[in-house]
């Protein structure tokens, strides 16, 4: 097959996805995702192996069949029957599905770090062998003739692009494994994970880690300067994460168990320098009633009906003494007063761990129309270093950024931040933390004092502080306004039910 025009920028990814999606036929995106991503992964590790093998044959022929020579360069050993050239030669055979399964099994057998990670159901009767063969032909052209590093980067870009597109196709379910790239980039550019331990307690398909490594690379750092840790409760998503990181050549300690981070914390002693997380919004079945006495709840016991403040406190618990964190949460977390959430938020503000709050535009996420925000936490606001610069003492202040007017529509339903949007947000935060060139901008950002926040009842909605225009409410998309009102109404219903139950109990007492 002729090489696909690999181009230097985005374009090849979109063209490949369009072609691959056409081959999908009637298969569900959630099912096809594993078929396509598994083959891209197989192509990636086979290409890496073949490039190293060619190098060894030229310089040290006796090492070409020694797995340790590959391991030393963080390259997976690929047995003969699992090499892409072998599968490509058999792509038109009716047994191609079984051959792919055998290749996956063979790779897992000799690479312990991939055990249980790779998809192995290509041989099932429901999977069309002709479609598989055409998909192999399509993927065969990726990175053909490129140098080793450029090929790895291109395959990584294709894998990441496919993840995003599948998340879009799956809608709500897609959001469970994928955080939009522009949101992750904003968090990473703000927190600058340049060195130290980076942790995500609900890591999905690993996008936070990929962007962290990209940040280090882009700023001339050494990839070995950051150590990556994560946990994921969904086994399928954990497998996607392991493959995503392996495609990028990222070494990471990613734990899985079905009990989840709250109930089976796999990294109890970890204290991270940077934590990046996008927990599921407003999760009500997190089993909070079984964790009432947990040591993590320093700022109050989170309600059993909503995990938002459990996530925030779990993250604070895992921060190093000068660690910082960025967390995506539903807007309700900034203002809710039900079930003790207002008191927990007050305790966190008065405890000087809330550094910055950002209101996000609607339509950024695949999975929900609920308006979202970013919380930035700091274990010690009086101290810290961002890369090589000393941060100023920020106690008594919180930075508010209203980013609801930023972003552009990438299609009919979804918005993204532009590079300029991300730079504006990140540079505002950096200037404020460093005390160099920051100024309040009406309608966009405000450094608010603790006294001012107290006067607003410890509500953290940026619009209350930045001096938003009166007309702004009318410009908010209807879906976003409706979701916000619905969330507020649900909160009021819950409060009314609690009040009714209390009144009934007291009336019963009077009647005795």
UniProtKB/TrEMBL annotation:
Segments forming a coiled coil: 479-506
The N6 adenine-specific DNA methyltransferase N-terminal domain, residue ranges: 12-128
GO BP field: methylation
EC nos: 2.1.1.72
Alphabetical UniProt keywords: Coiled coil, Methyltransferase, Restriction system, S-adenosyl-L-methionine, Transferase
Residue ranges constituting the DNA methylase adenine-specific domain according to the UniProt record: 151-474
GO molecular function list: methyltransferase activity
Xref: Pfam families: HsdM_N (PF12161), N6_Mtase (PF02384)
Chain segments annotated as transmembrane: none
InterPro entries: D12N6_MeTrfase_N (IPR022749), DNA_methylase_A-5 (IPR003356), DNA_methylase_N6_adenine_CS (IPR002052), SAM-dependent_MTases_sf (IPR029063), T1MK-like_N_sf (IPR038333), Type-I_RE_MTase_Subunit (IPR052916)
This protein's record includes keyword Transcription: no
Catalytic activity: a 2'-deoxyadenosine in DNA + S-adenosyl-L-methionine = an N(6)-methyl-2'-deoxyadenosine in DNA + S-adenosyl-L-homocysteine + H(+)
Domain of life (superkingdom): Bacteria
PANTHER family: TYPE I RESTRICTION ENZYME HINDI METHYLASE SUBUNIT (PTHR42998:SF1), TYPE I RESTRICTION ENZYME HINDVIIP M PROTEIN-RELATED (PTHR42998)
Family that this chain belongs to: Belongs to the N(4)/N(6)-methyltransferase family.
Official protein name in the record: site-specific DNA-methyltransferase (adenine-specific)
Gene: hsdM-1
């Amino acid at each position: 097959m002729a090489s696909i025009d690999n181009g230097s920028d985005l374009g090849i990814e979109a063209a490949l996805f369009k072609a691959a999606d056409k081959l999908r036929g009637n298969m569900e995106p959630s099912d096809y995702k594993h078929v396509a991503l598994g083959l891209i992964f197989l192509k990636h590790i086979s290409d890496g192996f073949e490039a190293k093998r060619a190098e060894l044959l030229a310089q040290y022929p006796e090492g070409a069949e020694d797995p340790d020579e590959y391991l030393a360069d963080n390259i997976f050993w690929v047995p003969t029957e699992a090499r892409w050239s072998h599968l490509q030669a058999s792509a038109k055979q009716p047994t191609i599905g079984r051959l792919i399964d055998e290749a996956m099994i063979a790779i897992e057998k000799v690479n312990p770090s991939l055990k249980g990670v790779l998809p192995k159901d290509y041989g099932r009767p429901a999977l069309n062998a002709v479609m598989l063969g055409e998909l192999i032909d399509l993927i065969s052209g990726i990175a053909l003739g490129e140098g080793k590093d450029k090929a790895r980067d291109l395959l990584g870009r294709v894998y990441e692009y496919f993840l995003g597109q599948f998340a879009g196709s799956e809608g709500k379910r897609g959001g469970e494994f994928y955080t939009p790239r522009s949101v992750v980039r904003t968090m990473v550019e703000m927190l600058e994970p340049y060195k130290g331990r980076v942790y995500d307690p609900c890591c999905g398909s690993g996008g936070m880690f990929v962007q962290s490594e990209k940040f280090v690379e882009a700023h001339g750092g050494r990839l070995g300067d950051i150590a990556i840790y994560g946990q994921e409760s969904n086994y399928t998503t954990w497998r996607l994460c392991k493959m995503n990181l392996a495609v990028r050549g990222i070494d990471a300690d990613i734990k899985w168990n079905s009990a989840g981070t709250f109930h089976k914390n796999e990294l109890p002693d970890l204290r991270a320098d940077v934590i990046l997380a996008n927990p599921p919004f407003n999760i009500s079945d997190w089993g909070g009633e079984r964790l009432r006495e947990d040591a993590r709840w320093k700022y109050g016991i989170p309600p059993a009906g909503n995990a938002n403040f459990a996530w925030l406190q779990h993250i604070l618990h895992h921060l190093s003494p000068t660690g910082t964190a960025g967390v995506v949460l539903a807007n309700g977390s900034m203002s809710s007063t039900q079930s003790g959430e207002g008191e927990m938020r007050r305790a966190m503000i008065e405890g000087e761990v809330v550094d910055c709050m950002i209101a996000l535009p609607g339509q950024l996420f695949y999975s929900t129309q609920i308006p979202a925000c970013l919380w930035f936490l700091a274990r010690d606001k009086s101290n810290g270093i961002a890369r090589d610069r000393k941060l100023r003492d920020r106690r008594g202040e919180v930075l508010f950024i209203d980013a609801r007017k930023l972003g552009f529509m990438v299609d009919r339903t979804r918005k993204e931040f532009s590079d300029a949007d991300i730079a504006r947000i990140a540079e505002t935060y950096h200037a404020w933390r460093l005390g160099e060139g920051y100024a309040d901008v009406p309608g966009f950002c405000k450094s608010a004092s603790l006294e001012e926040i107290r006067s607003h009842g410890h509500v953290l909605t940026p619009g209350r502080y930045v001096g938003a225009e009166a007309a702004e409410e009318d410009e908010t998309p209807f879906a976003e306004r409706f979701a916000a009102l619905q969330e507020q109404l649900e909160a009021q219903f819950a409060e009314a039910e609690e009040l009714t139950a209390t009144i009934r109990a007291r009336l019963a007492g009077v009647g005795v």
